[in-house]
Fold this protein.
Amino acid sequence: MTNQPAVNTALTLLASTGDASLATLLADGAPFASLVTFAMLDDGSPVLLLSRLAQHTDNIRRDPRASLLVSTLGQNTGEDTQTLARATFTGRLKPVDQVDMQLDARAAFLARHPSAETYIDFKDFGFYRLAIDQVHVVEGFGRIARFDASALSA
C-alpha cells in the first residue's frame, strides 16, 4: 500500500519548486550532478529546458537514465536541512519532439520561469521530459517512502 502523505509531499514539491539537482551518467558510468530548472506538464511530469552544449545533455543522449532531486532547501528558514522534505524522481529523460508537446512545455516553462524568455528560443536549447519510474521521498529522520510513479496519478 502506498504511503499517501509521501505521495502528497512528492506532488507538492513538484508543484511548488522549480529548481532541482539533476543526476546523469558520464560515459564511464560515473555519476554527474548539476543544477537545473524545471516546470510541470499537465500530466504531472517534470520538463527541463537543457542546452545541448551542457555535459548533462551529452550524458542523456548517450544514456537517458536520470534522477531529479527536488527539495525545500531553497525555502529553508534556518531549520536543520536533514529535516526538510525532499524527493528523488528516477526515470528516463526523453526529448520533447512533438510540436504540440513543445508548445505545452514552452508555456509551462515560461509560467514557472519567466526570465527564460531571454534564451528559451536559442537553437541549442531543447525540452526534455522526465518519464518517472520511481519516487523516493524523505520527510525527515526515519520518514522515508519509495513508490512507483503510478502512485502519483492514483
Notes: The chain is about 25% helix and 40% strand. The chain has a mean pLDDT of 90.
